[in-house]
Amino acid sequence: RTFRIAAIPADGVGTEVVAAGRAVLDALAAGSSGRFAFDWTDFPWGCGYYEKTGRMMDEDGLEVLQDFDALYFGAVGWPSVPDHVSLWGLRLRICQNFDQWANVRPVHFHPGITSPLRKADDTPLDWVVVRENSEGEYAGLGGRNLAGRGPGNEVALQTSLFTEKGCERIMRFAFDLARERDRKKVSSVTKSNAQQHGMVLWDEVFERVAADYPDVETESVLVDAMSATFVLHPEDLSVVVASNLNADILSDLGSALAGSLGLAASANLNPDHRFPSMFEPVHGSAPDIAGRGLANPIGAIGSAALMLDHFGLEEEATRVRKALDATTGSGLLTPDVGGTATTDQVVAAVLDNL
Ligand code: NAI
Ligand code: MG
What we know:
This is D-malate dehydrogenase (decarboxylating). The protein is of the alpha/beta class.
């Protein structure tokens, strides 16, 4: 079977790490004896495109993307364009219009990379943040310059949206995922003591859904306490389900604890399979290191492995993850995790280890 993939590297290190992931996928296809192939189409969208055209992506971009089996994304954002313009104009536009309501962000401690926790060397920690990806704090509701305020008195409103259906589907997704894992546990995260409307609804739905999964252990934790748990007792975690903003922050914390933002993979899934899903590293465009061949490609390659899972190529996905572990385990590391290797050297080692 041929899988059609849209590559959207976008900005900064996005281009470097998408090329890396693509090399790994192409090597797998080349060795598959024709069992599967990847047909790539490149899209030049991003901040450079915006500077030339005034648009982050083409007008009919969503229609064009609709027909692909998956989207492989780099990172969007560059200092020349305001971040809220670039993010909403490309990445969030795709996520929201393609109803990619489940964002899966594994936190995986690689061998050979020392965590600031220092537990990484002996304890192979592994948990997953499941992020509600369609509503919550990123619903885009609210406004500026609200009526009747003069200069110096502006009022802006940023409203969160929580729907019972939106909460329920992400929780069922988290519970189903927990059932596939060795540790069958879901931790639900809110700030429902302070945010007494939407997040209380979230808690109630969580309790109701949990009743359908008696074999799965559960807990409800406030986000401030959960950030402490990430640092102090990460071995207690298996699946962590949280709203858009809270999970965004927690997953960055998770990847930093694993050693670097450059390590973290993610999948923006439309579990209903009506629209293509999007696979991307968690990190941004890293303007501070862009264009120097120093980007850690592991997050992007891990995201390609999540894409393989999505295609039903689980065996290949496992091979890629093992090749990543073997590469870090051999001490071949980019500067963000304490090494001196370049992106290309890491990719070459991953290909060898495959
Ligand atoms: P960032 O993730 O780009 O960088 C944060 C730090 O992590 C930097 O020191 C960077 O060098 C390092 N880093 C990130 N990825 C790395 C990699 N692969 N290898 C080695 N080191 C890496 O976040 P920042 O600086 O807050 O944002 C930069 C731009 O990226 C902004 O325009 C922002 O809006 C955008 N952004 C886009 C995201 C996306 O497209 N999904 C996510 C986060 C930020
Ligand atoms: Mg983030």
